[in-house]
TrEMBL record:
Any single Gene Ontology cellular-component annotation: membrane
Family as reported in the entry's similarity comment: Belongs to the LemA family.
Subcellular location: Membrane
Keywords tagged on the record: Membrane, Signal, Transmembrane, Transmembrane helix
Membrane topology: Single-pass membrane protein
Pfam families, A to Z: LemA
Leader sequence segment: 1-22
InterPro entries for this protein: LemA-like_dom_sf, MamQ_LemA
Protein name, UniProt field: LemA family protein
Coiled-coil intervals: none
Location (main, coarse): membrane
Amino acid sequence: MKLLRALALLLVAAGLSGCGYNAIQRQDEAVKAAWSEVVNQYQRRADLVPNLVNTVKGYAQHEEKVLTEVTNARARVGSMQLTTDDLNNPQKLQQFQQAQGELSSALSRLMVVKENYPQLKADGLFQNLQAQLEGTENRITVARNRYVQSVQQYNSMIRTFPNNLTAKMFGYQVKPNFTVENEKAISTAPTVDFGNTPAPAASAH
């Protein structure tokens, strides 16, 4: 009896392996790991925001609108937590993208503010925070790209035969991904108007 049971388990294991079960499991774990890195980098950026806001406020207190936008955007990001269990929910992923995109735009406007304040641009703390922000943005881009690739590989795997049968049997679903529209919105630099009127050109004599 024990021998028959062991043989049955071996046959089941071999069948699952042949149908791609193990490969689907590995790819699903790869997606989760890639997402964790995305979240880590976004959190790194969020952690920089309070110091950035306080530093800018020290030189540009009347830029209240921009400072408020950054603070509010960070608060929305903090309330929009997306776990690996939520990755199959396209609505939640879209909401997460939108919140991160709003913070990206707000931070871009904050960085433009410095152009009107030479002392702020020269401040050592601000320069250090700016360098950290730029490095973090690069890490976010890398992490997002890796996540996109992981999801594409996972989705392709569970859509192909016979993996699609195994995926359906065990409830694996196609995962939503970052959208092209969101990528375009995040990468578009915001237009900022400080209301400065250029001086009239001197007339030739």
